[in-house]
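Example 3.2
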Amino acid sequence: MADSLRDFLNMSNRRGAAQKQALMFDQLGVIGCGLMGGSFALAMKRAGLVKRVVGYSKSPSTTQRALQMGVIDVEAPSALLAVSGADIVIVAVPVGAMPATFKAIRHLVSPRTLFIDVGSTKQDVASAATEILVRNAGCFVPCHPIAGSERSGVSAARADLFVGKRVIVTPTEQTDAKHLERALALWRGLGCTVSTMTPKAHDEAYAAVSHLPHLIAFAYMKGLLGQENPEGLLNLAGTGFADFTRIAASEPKVWRDVLLANKADVIEQARHFQRALHQLEVMLNTDDGAGLQKEITEASTARGKWKPKA
């Protein structure tokens, strides 16, 4: 029995080592060494899945900080040179900057290199990759980790950002099956739960559960700031205000690009919200306490039952 157990453990260890070796990369190129790109690099290092990390950011101070933190090993002077020699590349720039980034790197894009992104919208990114990378578009696997922070920049990067989080992978018709399989295995190797959907389905869904909530949080803060003595109001706020407005502190340029990229779906979701808000306003105006309680109960019950899924 002891010999059988030992043989089983040895076989399991060998299988695990073989799986890790299949995921091993010699060089990771990071384009955008901020929260997401920096956290991915740290996660890859902690998991022992990469030997060297080369990084580029538009801001030299960002790459310098990334070097100091050990996020990257080598600073690249351009996005193109961050791709040079890499067998995996992560594009972690705002979605509005994706087309320009693809144009900057396309001359060194190789069918052998796995390219992924971490953008919050997928139709625009997938279309840009298909159009700009042309025959090499098969190496690009669009990804969206459902992870992040209201904090931004490389100083907020951490190796465990993706652990236990969901990653949505949205392959296109051009995506190579082998690159897709490797991308799925890679995210799982970093401790993520992975699911796939089309870019269109992704954008429709996340307009409802992510993009519109951010827009509402921004609008609420603007409404508050437009009143007399907003500082006095803010001084009276408590934990409920903090919970509701946390995402309003998100990176402005990132969310400008996300909202514009997915504007049609966000506007459609905003209509649903406006109808629900109007209904509650009517109940307030007519002192309809019973109706108001019914609507609040329905919303409260649904929210109480909801649990985030990994």
